[in-house]
Write a structure and sequence with these properties.
The chain has a 7-stranded antiparallel beta sheet with strand order 13-25-16-17-18-15-14. Strands 1-2-5-4-3-12 form a 6-stranded antiparallel beta barrel. The chain has 2 domains: 25-87 and 293-471, no CATH class; 168-265, no CATH class. With 471 residues, the chain is an alpha+beta fold. Helices cover 15% and strands 34% of the residues. The chain has helices at residues 3-22, 26-35, 37-45, 47-53, 64-84, 149-152, and strands at residues 97-107, 110-118, 129-132, 135-140, 155-160, 168-173, 180-189, 198-201, 211-215, 233-242, 259-265, 276-281, 302-305, 309-310, 320-322, 335-338, 341-349, 354-358, 365-372, 379-391, 397-401, 412-419, 431-438, 444-448, 460-463. The longest helix is centred in the first third of the chain and has 21 residues, at 64-84. The N and C termini lie far apart (56 Å).
Length: 471
C-alpha cells in the first residue's frame, strides 16, 4: 500500500470513528465491546493513569461517620415519604382498609398504567380505588393469581384516571361555602396542549365553572367499588381557553380561534410524581401478613464496580466507562451509588462494558423528591422529573425543575434532594444533594450542591438487572 493510500485509509477510519462517537450504532458498539474485551483488564491495571485523565482526583469515598449520617437521613426520608401517602383524618371511610404500595414503574406502551408493589395482597381485587394522600389516583386492574410469581412479590397494576377510557363520578363544591353544587363525570385528559387537565363529562349544571372536585360514586348505583374513595380529591374545576394546534405543533393563540373547555386541574403530578400510593378495600378483616419492606441499600441487588477511565471525549461531559456489562447483570438505566448517594446512571450496556452518565452530564434525568426544611420537621415534597443542564462554574449541578407541583408562597426554601420511586433501575432514597427550592410556578433551574463537593468515589455499586424486583 502506497503512503498516500495509507494516509487516505487512516483519515477515512478516523472520520468513521468520529461519526460513530457522535451517533453510536448499537450493533457496532456491541462488536467493538466484544473485540476490545481484553483491553478492559489492562484498563483496570492502568487505573492510576486513568486518575490523571480526570479533572478531579478520585476520592476514596465518604468516611464511615458521613455514611452513617447519610444512611440515617435516608431512613428518615423513607418514613416521611410513607407518611405523605397517608390521607388526612376523616378521608378513609369506616370499615375500609388502606394497603400501602410503592410505584415501581410504568408500562412502556401505556403511560396511563402504573406498576405497583403492594405490601399485602390479601383481599385485593380488580376495581379497587387507589389514592395518594388526599387525592384519587385510579383503579386497580386485574391482579395476578396466587400461584403467579408476581403475586408473591406483590406486583399489580393501576389504571390511572388520566387514561382515555377512565371515568369516575364526581361532585364539585363552591369555593367559598363548600356546598355541593354540581354532579359530573371526570376522566381522561381534557383537550389541552399546554397543561394536563382531567376532562369533564356531562356536568349537571354548565354554569358552574369553578370549585373543588371530589370523587362521588353512590354505593350500589353501578358495579364496582369506587365509592370507597368518595370525598377524595380530583382537583380544581377550571374553565380555560383552548387553542387549535398549528402545522408546526404549536398552539395558535388567537382569540378568534379560542374555545373554552371545562376541566379539572389535578393536585397530583400523574406524569412523573406518583411514588407512594394506597389501595382502598372494604375488606378490613382480610388483612394478611404485611410484606417486609426491604432496605434498598441492602437488598442484594447491587454489585461493586469501578470507573477506571473517562468515557466521553467532550470536555463538557463527565461520562465514564464501566468494566462490567450485561454479562454481569448491568442494564441500561441502572443507578450507580456510593453509600446512600446517587453517582450516575448506565446509559448503554454491552456484554463486558457499560457507558455511564454522571450527575453533572447535560441531559441526566431522574425522578426526585425533596425533604423541605420549613422550621419544624422536614416534609417530603414531590419534585417529579429533574433534567440535568450540566455543571455550573461554581461546581454546583444545574437541573431543570418543571414545578408541576409548586411550593406555595414566595422566596426560597432549603431542601435536600433524593431520588423518588417509579423508575426501574433507580431505587428510592438516594441522595443527590442540597439546593434552594424557589416557590411559585415553574419551570425553575435548581443549583444543587452535591455531597463532598462532587468528588468522585473510587468504588461504586451498580444496581443489577435494572431493579428486576421492582426498584
Amino acid at each position: 500500500m502506497t503512503p498516500s493510500r495509507t494516509r487516505t485509509f487512516h483519515w477515512t477510519l478516523c472520520l468513521v470513528l468520529a461519526l460513530l462517537a457522535i451517533r453510536p450504532i448499537a450493533l457496532v458498539d456491541r462488536l467493538f465491546a466484544i473485540a476490545l474485551a481484553p483491553t478492559r483488564v489492562l484498563a483496570e491495571l492502568a487505573g492510576p493513569i486513568g486518575w490523571l485523565q480526570s479533572r478531579r482526583v478520585l476520592a476514596a469515598g465518604p468516611g464511615d461517620d458521613v455514611v452513617r449520617a447519610e444512611v440515617a437521613r435516608h431512613h428518615a426520608l423513607e418514613q416521611a415519604v410513607l407518611d405523605s401517602a397517608l390521607p388526612s383524618p376523616g378521608y378513609l371511610p369506616a370499615g375500609a382498609r388502606a394497603v400501602h404500595a410503592e410505584v415501581i414503574g410504568r408500562r412502556r406502551d401505556d403511560l396511563d398504567t402504573i406498576e405497583i408493589r403492594v405490601e399485602d395482597m390479601a383481599g385485593l381485587r380488580a376495581g379497587l380505588p387507589v389514592v395518594s394522600g388526599d387525592c384519587f389516583v385510579g383503579l386497580t386492574e386485574v391482579l395476578p393469581d396466587p400461584g403467579d410469581p408476581r403475586y408473591r412479590h406483590g406486583l399489580a397494576t393501576v389504571r390511572l384516571i388520566t387514561a382515555r377510557d377512565s371515568r369516575i363520578g364526581a361532585l364539585s363544591s363552591d369555593e367559598s361555602s363548600g356546598a355541593a353544587t354540581c354532579q359530573m363525570v371526570v376522566g381522561a385528559l381534557a383537550p389541552r396542549a399546554d397543561a394536563l387537565h382531567l376532562d369533564v363529562h356531562n356536568p349537571a349544571d354548565r354554569s358552574v365553572q369553578s370549585g373543588e372536585v371530589v370523587v362521588y360514586e353512590p354505593e350500589g348505583l353501578r358495579e364496582g367499588l369506587a365509592y370507597i374513595a368518595n370525598g377524595f380529591l380530583l382537583g380544581d374545576l377550571v374553565l380555560e381557553p383552548v387553542y387549535p394546534i398549528g402545522p408546526r405543533g404549536e398552539p395558535i393563540v388567537e382569540e378568534r380561534f379560542a374555545k373554552s373547555v371545562l376541566g379539572v386541574r389535578p393536585r397530583l403530578d400523574y406524569a412523573t410524581g406518583l411514588y407512594q400510593v394506597l389501595v382502598l378495600t372494604p375488606d378490613a378483616g382480610a388483612a394478611g401478613p404485611a410484606r417486609q419492606r426491604e432496605d434498598v441499600l441492602e437488598d442484594g441487588l447491587w454489585t461493586l464496580a469501578r470507573m477506571p477511565l473517562r468515557g466521553e471525549p467532550s470536555p463538557w461531559r463527565e461520562g465514564r466507562k464501566l468494566g462490567i456489562g450485561t454479562r454481569h447483570g448491568v442494564r441500561a438505566g441502572a443507578a450507580l451509588a456510593s453509600g446512600a448517594r446517587l453517582v450516575g446512571r448506565v446509559l448503554r450496556s454491552g456484554p463486558v462494558a457499560a457507558d455511564v452518565a454522571l450527575l453533572a452530564d447535560p441531559g441526566f434525568s431522574v425522578l426526585a423528591i425533596a425533604m423541605v426544611e420549613t422550621g419544624g420537621e422536614p416534609t417530603a415534597h414531590v419534585l417529579g422529573r429533574l433534567r440535568g443542564l450540566g455543571r455550573a462554574r461554581d461546581g454546583t449541578l444545574r437541573f431543570e425543575w418543571p414545578a408541576t407541583l409548586p411550593l406555595a408562597g414566595a422566596g426560597e426554601v432549603r431542601a435536600e434532594i433524593w431520588t423518588g420511586s417509579g423508575e426501574r433501575g433507580v431505587p428510592r432514597g438516594l441522595l443527590i444533594g442540597a439546593s434552594a427550592l424557589p416557590r411559585g410556578a415553574g419551570p425553575h433551574v435548581l443549583h444543587v450542591s452535591p455531597p463532598d463537593a462532587g468528588a468522585e468515589p473510587a468504588r461504586i455499586a451498580v444496581r443489577l438487572g435494572a431493579g428486576e424486583r421492582g426498584s
